[in-house]
Design goal:
Structural class: alpha+beta
Strand content: 15-25%
Mean pLDDT: 89
Low-confidence stretches: none
Distance between the termini: 77 Å
């Protein structure tokens, strides 16, 4: 009893001290923001002593042990101890921060937790330079890539060089062999568990970002292709969007303002992405009679999802749709609230519990969340004032169970399914890029036998993933950052095969030839199955 009272006193004292410390931090950060960008960039080439780097290795491992609730799920403690110890012993000469990152990141990846990721210390830009970069499209962002059989191919070309075609293999970048680059990147990225489907999807999707970690954002790149073609790709200016400033907005008429508000609401509903100029969510009918619909969801992150799903399932009910195809290929995840909302329209049960309580390492785990992430100067001050309430809420949200572990309840309450829920046949298209929230949703649908899955094993694990809140910790000497998930998010539905994703009922792996011919083999398979099923029903009726 005395220990509990002492613990409560210490905790309340901690929360109380947060206000003063946070407000002080806010103003300190405001001053730091005004510091020298050039000084930071110059430090990128500084050599750090082996002793300091070894301390960073220890710091990383201690933080993982304190914060990560499933650190030894896919690797034994003895093995991981050995890997971190071996890394320390291998550091015998001074290294730059980036060189240290190249050595640390593969060891962190050995944990085999896809959300636990290492970030290098990177170049910073002045405000003017940041504004300029927002108006430009860097060379890599002008393409979409895919990896087939350890080779990098162009699958979309938005550059001004029209002699680069879909299906062209990129063999060298700035005279560096692509196969060597891919090999290095794969060592730094892991899926959840032991499957190997995620790395290629992640690298292809974010190839330019990984390349910029070392080389910086490129003004131009030299691409060499398999057909002895080579091109210099330069950055280009973005098309000027008709975005009104606040000053201009004041001059517009009320009718015009109302029109803009309506347009923005529509964009939010579909999760319009300003960078790609594409919607994250779409619903289309395949057949003229509306018996089959295709819902494509590229991510569970952007926009007003509840409005989209409400409208979509009302439309499906009205149209008397029998077959719903949900495409979550290359959907890397997003909000738990969104997939919970979507599932409420898909379950055939009248009530459901979406996920189990999420395990954390201790009572104060959620206080490690990066509360100030992405805040602007004024935001720091406002959040600083509100921080005692935030931290108190996060602290009391965690409870200790009879098993001795700590848990947090998020999306665990029993809920009613939506009245307009879909009761027809569901097909789900998946691949290695179906990760995080996509895998949690797939687990619910697979485990309740609610859908048929077509494609490739998901990158996220069937039995759960360590994600939820994911703060980045900065290492004291190298300033390398490691992102650590705090919550083990999992559903009641389980499989005996640990460390693998949701397997498809029908495995279909597309090829580069499919991309060249604009062929979608997974979708075509489903449409053919529906067609055969419909024909049989017609024959029966006759």
């Amino acid at each position: 009893m005395k220990k509990q009272l002492q613990f409560k006193k210490e905790t309340l004292a901690f929360i109380k001290s947060v206000k003063n410390k946070t407000i002080l931090l806010c103003f300190t950060l405001l001053l730091i923001k005004c510091g020298s960008v050039s000084k930071h960039n110059a430090s990128l080439d500084d050599l750090i002593t082996p002793k300091k780097l070894q301390k960073d290795v220890d710091f990383t491992y201690r933080k993982l042990q304190k914060m990560h609730p499933k650190l030894y799920l896919y690797i034994d403690k003895e093995q991981l101890d050995f890997k971190f110890d071996s890394l320390k012993k291998a550091i015998t000469t001074p290294l730059t921060s980036y060189d240290f990152y190249t050595k640390l990141s593969p060891v962190v990846a050995e944990i085999k937790q896809g959300h636990t990721f290492t970030f290098p210390k990177i170049k910073k830009f002045s405000k003017d330079k940041q504004k300029q970069l927002k108006k430009e499209i860097d060379p890599f962002s002008q393409f979409e890539f895919e990896i087939f059989n350890n080779k990098l191919y162009v699958t979309e070309n938005n550059s001004k060089e029209k002699n680069i075609y879909i299906g062209d293999e990129v063999t060298q970048i700035n005279a560096n062999p692509v196969d060597s680059i891919l090999k290095v990147y794969k060592e730094r990225i892991t899926s959840d568990g032991f499957n190997t489907t995620f790395q290629d999807k992640m690298i292809a999707k974010r190839f330019g970002i990984f390349y910029s970690y070392n080389k910086g954002i490129q003004d131009s790149i030299k691409l060499q292709f398999n057909k002895d073609k080579e091109f210099w790709i330069k950055k280009i200016k973005k098309d000027s969007n008709l975005v009104l400033s606040k000053k201009d907005l004041k001059k517009t008429t009320k009718t015009h303002k109302d029109s803009l508000i309506k347009v923005n609401k529509e964009k939010s509903k579909y999760g319009y992405d300003k960078e790609t100029k594409k919607n994250n969510r779409t619903l289309t009918f395949i057949e003229k009679d509306s018996t089959t619909a295709l819902m494509q969801i590229k991510g569970f992150k952007i926009g007003n999802f509840s409005a989209f799903y409400k409208e979509s399932f009302e439309l499906l009910k009205k149209a008397k749709t029998k077959n719903l195809i949900i495409d979550i290929r290359d959907n890397f995840g997003g909000r738990l609230n969104e997939i919970d909302n979507l599932y409420s329209y898909l379950t055939t049960d009248s009530t459901y519990q979406f996920v189990n309580p999420s395990q954390v390492t201790k009572k104060t785990s959620l206080l490690k969340n990066d509360y100030f992430k992405g805040s602007k100067p004024l935001g720091y001050v406002v959040k600083g004032i509100l921080s005692p309430f935030y931290y108190s809420y996060m602290f009391f949200k965690v409870h200790k169970n009879e098993d001795g572990n700590y848990y947090v309840n998020m999306n665990t309450k029993e809920k009613k399914a939506k009245e307009n829920r879909f009761t027809g046949k569901i097909y789900v298209l998946i691949n290695g890029g179906s990760f995080s929230a996509s895998s949690v949703l797939s687990t619910k649908l697979k485990g309740t036998n609610r859908a048929t899955f077509i494609g490739e094993e998901t990158g996220g694990e069937y039995n759960g993933t360590v994600a939820g809140l994911m703060p980045k910790i900065e290492l004291p000497n190298s300033k390398v950052q490691v992102r650590i998930g705090l919550m083990y998010v999992n559903a009641s539905e389980k499989t005996d095969l640990t460390g693998h994703g949701i397997y498809p009922d029908v495995t279909i792996l597309p090829t580069i030839e499919d991309r060249i011919n604009n062929n979608d083999p997974e979708l075509n398979y489903v449409l053919e199955v529906i067609k055969e099923k419909t024909n049989k029903e017609v024959v029966k009726m006759e």
